[in-house]
Amino acid sequence: MLEVKQVSKLYENQRGVHGIDFSMTRGEIVGFLGPNGAGKTTTMRMITGYLNPTHGSISIDGLSMADHPKKARQKIGYLPETPPLYPEMSVRSYLQFIADLRGIPVKEQKHRIGEVIDRLGLQGRERQIMRSLSKGYKQRMGLAQAILHNPDLLILDEPTSGLDPKQIIEIRQLIRELGENHTVLLSTHILPEINTLCNRVLIINQGRIVMDGHPDRLGQSMGETFEVSLEVKGPREAVLAELRSLPQIASVKPLADVTAAAEPAAEPPAALQPPPLEHGAPEPGVGAGAQEPADAMPAAWLAKPSTVAEPTVRVLVSATDRADIREAIFYRMAELRYPILAMQKESLSLEDIFLKLTTNEAIDPEASAAGGGDPASDVSVPGTNAIDKEVDPHA
Ligand SMILES: Nc1ncnc2c1ncn2[C@@H]1O[C@H](COP(=O)(O)OP(=O)(O)OP(=O)(O)O)[C@@H](O)[C@H]1O
Q1: Atom 10, ligand 1: which residue's CA is nearest?
Q2: How far is the CA of 140 from the centre of ligand 1 (A)?
Q3: Is the pTM value of this prediction over 0.95?
Q4: Where is the composition biased (Low complexity) (predicted)?
Q5: Residues 216, 177 share a domain
């Protein structure tokens, strides 16, 4: 759908972006994330044909933006950071104007405008002068002008910036719906927006793409290990020793102090008493029983609360080889009747990753690439490209 190949932009003597290289397939909603001045708007303006690259090429659905700008632009809808509205026009007359501008055949215009008005919830406001629209409705108008000619690709520059929380929710919902039949590239400063809307994120910093992948899998590509934080009720040293003895455990680090020993627990009601052990059966957690799989554990034991007052042990457990150790921990603690009160897989948040990638004074691509050592991951940490020295004649 979109191919951006080794695109650079040099403004006079100032670097805009360098060696931007990515593609998008139909149906993707891609978040474009970067700090101020990273190059998001520059990239988006080049994709939409408003700015010529100094180097590299852009094509939309196989159409080169340099060779066929008019046809290529027809395939794009663009919502700039500030929607291009004429405040004195009414909603309908503005859309009529855009329809003419976009070359929508006259006989189709009425139907198309009606569709867009419905889609963006503008019914009843057709005659309203745009100056009097709220910021959220102005943003809807911006989206309306972007989709009126039914483009395949939508480029949205900070579509929720400056909106109140209710408007943000509404515009996000609209973008989600538009994503059902459009390919969308949207820039944002709002990290949760990426998690709620996008199935892929591109992070740009200092004019270069420094990360490309699924929002949930970026941590892996940065060498993140598999870690689980745990709260277990049981004797501290025994819990630590048992966890350390499990396979594929790299480390078990006690977290903040354990809680003081609890008051002796009341005897459980008779209904929850463990069933009498059969003659010769091992005590729970003792001998061969401790090694047996979960289906060897009587269900009533698992349901029964501990009768022994024990402290709560809080630990951070790391796995070797990014193994998912949660089930092994669960079954072992259950066998020993050390109740797990909480178990949480720890991972780098998008915010952690963003800060790691964008707060360095200068990016060391080799170091980043070395961190991104997961060949199975669909996340990539692009390397650098030669910086163009040419000055753009179109700048
Ligand atoms: N017309 C211009 N002339 C000269 N330099 C420019 C021009 N437009 C942008 N730049 C520079 O190019 C770099 C990238 O700017 P750009 O606006 O693309 O970043 P951005 O990621 O969109 O930032 P923001 O989030 O603040 O909008 C910045 O260093 C900026 O100063």
Answers
A1: 16
A2: 25
A3: no
A4: 260-270
A5: yes
